[in-house]
Amino acid sequence: MNILLIVISSLLIAIVLLQSGKAESTSSIVSGGTADLYSNRKERGGELFITRLTFLLGVAFFVICIIM
């Protein structure tokens, strides 16, 4: 069980680092630019897969932690 937790933790860290930054427009929010604040951006292809994989690995991590 410990080895599985280590593997899931490592994969979760790697996948999070691979994700593109969703807070790219933070500087425009602070500076007052609201043009991109309400834009609807859909994830497609690889980005959608990485997001779903991150969610699944996160759930698996918490479930294993609670079981342990």
Explain how this protein is built.
With 68 residues, the chain is mainly alpha-helical. It contains 3 helices and no strands. Helix 1 packs antiparallel against helix 3. The chain is elongated and about 40 Å long.
- H/E series, N to C? HHH
Using only CA atoms, what is the Rg?
16 Å
Count of individual helical segments? 3
Poorly predicted runs are none
Please indicate the percent range of residues in DSSP E strands (runs of 2 or more).
Answer: under 5%
* Termini Cα gap: 8 Å
Mean pLDDT: 80
Structural class: mainly alpha
Name its key features.
66% helix; mainly alpha; 68 residues; elongated
Please outline what is shown here:
Helix 1 (2-18) runs antiparallel to helix 3. This protein has helices at residues 2-18, 26-31, 46-67. The chain contains 3 helices and no strands.
How are the SSEs ordered, and which strands pair?
Elements: H1 2-18, H2 26-31, H3 46-67
Helix pairs in contact: 1-3
